[in-house]
Fold these 3 entries.
Entry 1:
Amino acid sequence: MSLIRVLLAIFFPPLAVLGKGCGSFLIVLLLTFCGWVPGVIAALVILNNPN
């Protein structure tokens, strides 16, 4: 995880996971709409996954 991706995950979570695939982007986008904190947590979990 790079510092730029972590900062993106904090400030705009869907943009941080854009390179991980469309499904990840949509999940994080929906969670961000439900609340900012769930979106940030999901983005950090997805970015921390090595696959």
Note: The chain has four helices and no strands.
Entry 2:
Amino acid sequence: MLRAEGLHKRYRHGPPVLAGVDLALEPGAPVVLAGANGSGKSTLLRILAGCSAPTSGRVLGRPRVVGYLPDRFPAQLRMPADVYLRHLAQIRGVGVDTGLLETLGFTGRRGEPMARLSKGNAQKVGLAQALGCGAGLVVLDEPWAGLDVDAAEVLVELLTGVDAALLVTDHTGRAARIPGARHLALESGVVSERHSRSLGVSESAARSPEAGAAGASAGAGERAARSPGRSESAVRSAETAPIPAVRVVVLRCADPAGLAAALGVVGRVDGHRLVLDVAGSDVDGLLLAALQRGGSVESVR
């Protein structure tokens, strides 16, 4: 088991990025870490992977081999992908698992410099070196960034089968599908259990627009019943009010198909837009869920 005790990290200017973080990681118990941009997630991951040192505190039980994918994978290299993977394998004292590239759908040329690879293919090389080294600890910072839809689905399956301590950050929502994952949040420099399943709709509603509409309608009735000063007839009206008409919601993101998969909805992809038909009562919950997964709202009409 890897344990982090009282990790503090302070840079030259500003408040501490980490303020006494305690964390435990063990095989078979994946951890998904959430937090706003600039909250210190990448800093914490670098410390746990052994690539950076804390200002104070300590990390105990770090295994000899760590599979680490940084948020900015060094893809601008003159080294070809196969040579890069062999080089890292020799440093770690393990064999090369080039089959992971095929599994992830690598379509680049293995013999050309990595600097010529697309973002998606470079990310697949980064994942292959992190997941194919027999690591006792796997630390992945936004591993779905730049992946196509098929590779993104494959990665969920690969992470489900990781036989190591696993820590992942993710803004796409796909990490929520890793079975048995523990969800934590980093806020104000402190890690705590994440209780943000209240996305405005239930988790099952996020996967089903019909269930979301029903849940939102029921929630409106409950809120009305709890509101002071409401007459019994007003409460009954709120409980029996019809679901509003369908709205057309247009979301923008880098991976619209991936966002649709994360939300559990079916929509039309138009460039960087995801166009959805959403029951009026389910709009607020869906918009909140989309924003939490890195999307932005273009219009609701």
Note: The radius of gyration is 22 Å.
Entry 3:
Amino acid sequence: MGETEKLLDVLYTGRDRLTSGEIQRQAIVAEASAAVVGRLESLPEGEYTYDEAVDALAVTGRGDDGVGVPAGALSDEDLSRELGHLHETRDDTFRHGSPQALEHHDERTAELEDEFLRRFPERSVDPRRLRT
């Protein structure tokens, strides 16, 4: 169990649900490492059970060191899922994320998109999306 999950265990003691903001604030109060706080900042806004928070953090691809699983190490299915999740959370991160969360989002999106294009250079292109 990593540092983030250990902290979540403590934060969820006696509680069923916490908001992402509460989780982040409590991590700061608990003097969690910058890597853990940064990881928790990637949690999309909302309310989470312990399991939901762990699952949501797993989708961001960030470990306790703040670095995601390298794109090249992901299966095709995981790569597609993570890329889809990043695209789904882009607006919320852009409008409400910290500068660090936005920077990480940009970097991770670019990494995953580059890997996707490397693996699927002949992806299907919708002719209606082409411009003269």
Note: Residues 5 and 107 are 24 Å apart (CA to CA).
